Amino acid sequence: MIELAERALPVLGFLLAMTIIAELAERCGLFALIADRLGRWSRGSVPVLWAGLVVVALAATIFLSLDTTAVLLTPVVLALAQRMSVDPRLFAYTCVWLANTGSLLLPVSNLTNLLSLSSTNSSTLDFLSRIWPAALTAAVITVGVLAIMFRRTLAVRGVVDDRPVAPANRGLLIGQAMIIIALAVAIVVGAEISLASLIAAALSIVLTAIVDRSLLRRLPLPWRMMLGVGLLLVVVEIARQLVLDAWFARFELPDSLSGSLLLAGLGAGLSNLINNLPAYLTLEPLAQTPALSASLLVGVNAGPLITPWASLATLLWAGRCRAAGVRIGWGDFALRGLLLTALVVPLATASLFLTG
């Protein structure tokens, strides 16, 4: 259990810190300002607007985690789509799909990445050098599928809305943006992730308290999520010690493309049956090599696109869509997600070997 605590505490600390950072960035108007600028720069061109959204969604996912894209970016871009009289489903699917398929590149992009980093004892640069081909492939395929599926939406012209959205306090917004940028740089150059994120969260709180203390009222802290993740880690660890590790010891996947494809497929399938976090923890004993570890991440990060419970980000995203009045049928979601998963998971996994 001591080893479990050593893995769990940094993950839980990171989850707490990133929730605070992302929430304060949203409260100071960062995401609303970005959406407003995208709308004004596009001048009614849906392809230009959507291209900007793709860049922002990937950046938010990579540097602030997939939950940030699902929870904080989704509502502002849906409001922008409705303001411009554009089918909001393109924007909704862009957010939820890139939140998942775009969460491979950095350890901070997804909790599964942090768990993988702790199990392999590798650095952020090692992680990045190993996973980048799959991350790039997954993002490119996702964007391509979105462009084909929503080609009619991309062919229309939206209503030009020149009403500017000014932040309540530009200095606070700039300060929060600088903290996020500094955190991203620190993580890329190899800083200890949980410590760097907690320091950044503390700086965000101090800055907000100095400039506008009212923004700290009822600041949502992810206590339930942290408790859920902690309990999940304990349950799966007990199951591994009692049954799973001994059972998986009978199997040894080959450190090859075939073994990687099998593990990635298992990860995607189990994620859609239960959830991607317990799916990763369950299958982790099979990821005995760096290639297999990366392939498992492809499956559990880019694969949970079919069922609404496959990732917490999707459930949170669905709630934001309902609040915005955007109806997404789960049958439609599953069929579209099945097609994307069937393309992304094997091709992103194969890319790990084509470049290595």
UniProtKB/TrEMBL annotation:
Places the protein is found: Cell membrane
Highest rank taxon of the organism: Bacteria
Keyword field contains GTP-binding: no
Protein's membrane topology: Multi-pass membrane protein
Key words, A-Z: Arsenical resistance, Cell membrane, Membrane, Transmembrane, Transmembrane helix, Transport
GO biological process, any: response to arsenic-containing substance
Cellular component GO terms held in the UniProt record: plasma membrane
Residues annotated as domain Citrate transporter-like: 8-310
Protein name, entry field: Na+/H+ antiporter NhaD/arsenite permease-like protein
Family: Belongs to the CitM (TC 2.A.11) transporter family.
Entry's Gene Ontology molecular function annotations: arsenite transmembrane transporter activity
Transmembrane parts of this sequence: 49-78, 90-111, 131-150, 171-189, 195-215, 227-249, 261-283, 295-318, 333-354
UniProt cross-references to InterPro entries, sorted A to Z: Arsenical_pump_ArsB, Cit_transptr-like_dom
Predominant place of localization: membrane
Keyword field contains Transport: yes
